[in-house]
Write a structure and sequence with these properties.
The chain contains 6 helices and 2 strands. With 155 residues, the protein is mostly helical. It has a two-stranded antiparallel sheet with strand order 1-2. Strand 1 and strand 2 form a beta hairpin. The N terminus is likely disordered.
């Protein structure tokens, strides 16, 4: 941003925070769109996701609001192939709503994206250990059932 005679000139953003913020915002909006699309493929439209979020949050969430959270803002000089939307104001998903969106869509893609790399690695490690635990538990359950079957045949 350039300040000229006390006024901010946003027409020629300099490389740095503003551009990085724009890119990060677009990335989050794309992830939300992907989550909603995946939910749609599993039979949940935006209205259903919005209803589940309303129930979880205790405040109204509409399908139109979800559409706004996925709208890509226009950036001057944008050469990408995506069509940005021309609006004066863009609405972002409130951070406290992320768990409700994740629960309603059945996807934790946004939560993972918002984590730092260390926490992401810890989560992946925990998931691997959980899978190992599930495998062991399933194995023990099968052996137990096998022992019970053998016991009833003998007894």
């Amino acid at each position: 941003m350039v300040v000229v005679k006390g006024k901010a000139d946003l027409s020629a953003p300099k490389k740095g925070h503003w551009i990085g913020t724009y890119e990060a915002d677009c990335q989050v909006r794309k992830i939300i769109a992907d989550m909603l699309e995946a939910a749609r493929k599993h039979g949940k439209d935006r209205a259903q996701v919005a209803k589940e979020m309303t129930d979880a949050l205790g405040r109204d969430v509409t399908a139109a609001m979800l559409a706004e959270f996925t709208r890509i803002p226009l950036q001057r000089g944008d050469q990408s192939g995506e069509k940005p939307h021309r609006r004066k104001r863009y609405v972002s998903l409130p951070t406290p709503w992320v768990p409700a969106l994740s629960a309603a869509t059945g996807s934790n893609k946004l939560v993972r994206h918002l984590m730092d790399s260390r926490n992401r690695e810890l989560l992946e490690l925990a998931e691997k250990q959980h899978l190992k635990f599930d495998w062991v538990l399933e194995r023990v359950h099968r052996l137990y059932n096998k022992l019970q079957t053998t016991k009833t045949r003998k007894g």
